[in-house]
Specification:
Layout: H1 4-15, H2 21-28, H3 32-45, E1 49-54, E2 61-70, H4 75-83, E3 88-94, E4 99-107, H5 113-120, E5 127-140, H6 155-162, H7 185-196, H8 202-209, H9 213-225, E6 229-234, E7 244-252, H10 254-264, E8 270-276, E9 282-288, H11 291-301, E10 308-321
Antiparallel strand pairs: 1-6, 2-4, 2-5, 3-4, 3-10, 5-8, 7-9, 7-10, 8-9
Keywords: DNA-binding, Transcription, Transcription regulation
Domain Transcription regulator AsnC/Lrp ligand binding: 252-319
Domain HTH asnC-type: 2-43, 187-224
């Protein structure tokens, strides 16, 4: 079970995933050795990972939410084929175990990028149905963490971590927030390395990019300051009260969509809320303590939102991939 210090450390890493153990210790009022031990224990027992993620709009990409259905005998093979791809994240096995839901990132303007992916899948996966939903706007998730995983620090502690260079989760972008950046091959190598391990040492990042450690530090500071890269946490949500995981597909009248989505983003039970294309125009990811809590939320939480005209629930049976590459891609490095 997680105690107060564990939860505070998780919250702190949400704010600054690359804060040193010394910085974290100052905020948490413990020794750096205690922070180091807790961090290693959370990695081993709670599947904690810090990952660096590019802002898809600033780096010239767009995101699709795919729903794929396959034969029962081949659904897991299809899911693992998606896991192995570098352009996918959040690969879930849902429903009765024959549906796979995944997020796909494609270069901006690529014609039918999700269709190209389907042509690249093994012919033996037994694909029986496909729907692709363009993620148009996220109200909760990505830069904004699930409230139950980031509710342990006082406002003063949060300000101590934000410091003068970066504020909020992952840094406050400049006014050029949506101006696409020109990235070099070394920039992409840096982002790939941080997606594997958001706390990789500067020396390791230098080896991956071919830059000097000083250049890596300057470039990383710049990418964070302009919002092109931010840091997120992967952790087993069951330890934070999210044992039951459900995807919610909703239909809301367009005139009420922004109002409803913004309201749902304030619900403690939701970790992700986004506007999508398709027959359902709002998708959310619910995390509840147990099935009784889920029932209560569906009936007394979502059930009171009159603007939701249709609701489909899809229980998540397995999470095969989160935002970072599969941990089996390689052992995490030591960092401080």
């Amino acid at each position: 079970m997680l105690d107060g210090l564990d939860r505070a450390l998780i919250h702190a890493l949400h704010i600054d995933g690359r804060a040193s153990f010394t910085q974290l210790a100052t905020v948490l009022a413990v020794s750096p050795q205690t922070v180091s031990r807790r961090y290693e224990r959370l990695r081993e027992q709670a599947a904690l990972r810090v990952v660096g993620l590019p802002d898809h709009q600033l780096t010239g990409h767009e995101q699709w939410l795919l729903r794929l259905t396959a034969d029962p005998e081949t659904a897991l093979d299809l899911a693992h084929a998606l896991v192995r791809r570098p352009d996918t994240s959040w690969v879930y096995l849902t429903g009765g175990g024959t549906e796979i839901v995944a997020v796909l990132e494609t270069p901006l303007g690529t014609a039918h990028g999700h269709s190209l992916l389907l042509h690249e899948l093994p012919p033996s996966v037994g694909l029986t149905a496909v729907s692709a939903h363009h993620l148009l706007h996220s109200y909760l998730g990505w830069r904004t963490p699930w409230r139950m995983s980031a509710n342990a620090l006082t406002p003063q502690q949060q300000r101590m971590l934000c410091g003068t260079r970066f504020t909020g989760y992952g840094g406050t972008p400049t006014p050029d927030r949506y101006r696409q950046m020109q990235l070099s091959p070394a920039d992409h190598a840096l982002m790939d390395a941080l997606r594997r391990d958001g706390r990789a040492a500067v020396a390791e990042l230098a080896a991956d990019t071919g830059w000097s450690p000083a250049t890596v530090s300057r470039r990383l500071d710049h990418l964070r300051a302009c919002g092109a890269i931010f840091f997120d946490i992967e952790i087993d949500p069951a330890l934070l009260g999210g044992s039951v995981k459900v995807l919610l597909w909703m239909v809301v009248a367009p005139a009420r969509l922004d109002e409803v989505a913004a309201s749902l983003a304030r619900h403690d039970e939701l970790a992700f809320v986004a506007h999508t294309t398709g027959p359902t125009n709002l998708v959310a990811h619910a995390l509840c303590r147990d099935t009784a809590a889920l029932y209560h939320y569906l009936t007394h939480g979502l059930g009171t939102v009159k603007a939701i005209s249709s609701l489909e629930t899809a229980p998540v049976l397995r999470t095969l991939k989160a935002v970072g590459p599969s941990p089996s891609a390689g052992p995490p490095s030591r960092r401080g």
